[in-house]
Description:
The complex is a heterodimer of chains A (115) and B (115).
Chain A: E1 5-7, E2 10-13, E3 19-24, E4 31-38, E5 42-50, E6 53-57, E7 64-68, E8 74-78, E9 87-94, E10 105-106, E11 110-114
Chain B: E1 3-5, E2 10-14, E3 19-21, E4 24-26, E5 32-39, E6 46-52, E7 60-61, E8 64-69, E9 74-79, E10 88-96, E11 104-105, E12 109-114
Parallel strand pairs in B: 2-12
Antiparallel strand pairs in B: 1-4, 3-9, 5-6, 5-10, 7-8, 8-9, 10-11, 10-12
Amino acid sequence: KAGVTQTPRYLIKTRGQQVTLSCSPISGHRSVSWYQQTPGQGLQFLFEYFSETQRNKGNFPGRFSGRQFSNSRSEMNVSTLELGDSALYLCASSIGQGTLNTEAFFGQGTRLTVV
Amino acid sequence: AQTVTQSQPEMSVQEAETVTLSCTYDTSENNYYLFWYKQPPSRQMILVIRQEAYKQQNATENRFSVNFQKAAKSFSLKISDSQLGDTAMYFCAFITSGSARQLTFGSGTQLTVLP
C-alpha cells in the first residue's frame, strides 16, 4: 500500500510570494494533519482536516491555510511568505476516527526555503 | 498547557549496547496515548512504539521498550542491542482526547550509534 506522498519535496520561494504544498494520504485515510518543523521551534501543529472539514487548528497566523478535497488529498497554502516560514512541512495521515490509538503515518515532508 | 520535555538533546551509544532516552510530559487529561517517533536523515517520521495511558503494562516492540511511570508523567524509551540503523532523531509525543488528534512533540534527542 502506498505511503503518504508530499509534493514537492523541495521549494525555494521569495519573501512576499505564496506557496501551495500538497499531501496525498494513504488510501482509506480520511484525516490529514500538517506540522511545521524548524530547528528553533521544533514540531508544531498547524491544522487537521477530516472529511473536508478543518477539525483543529494550531496557533499560526491566518497566512497559513489549508483545505481537503473529497478524495482526502490536502493542500496547505502560505501567503505573503516570510523568512521565518522556512521549514520542513510534514503531513500525517490517519484513519481519523475511533480510538486515539490509530497510528499517524508521515510523509517525507516538503522543505521550504524562503529567500 | 500540554508539554513534552526531552532533556537530552544528544546521546551516543556503542553498537550492541543499551541506551535509554528520557521524556516527561504534562497534561491534565486522563485519556491519552504516548508515542516515540524516530526521524532518520531521510526526514520521514516513523512510529517506534506507543503506550496507552490506561495500560499499566509497559509496551514492547522487539528491541524497543518503554518505562511508563504515569504518576511521575515519565515515558522513557529503552533501545537494546543498538544497531547503526537506529541512528536518528527520536521524538516523544502524546495525543489526548481533548486535543482532537493533535500530536504534541518534544524537542527531540539525536541518537548516534557508534560502530
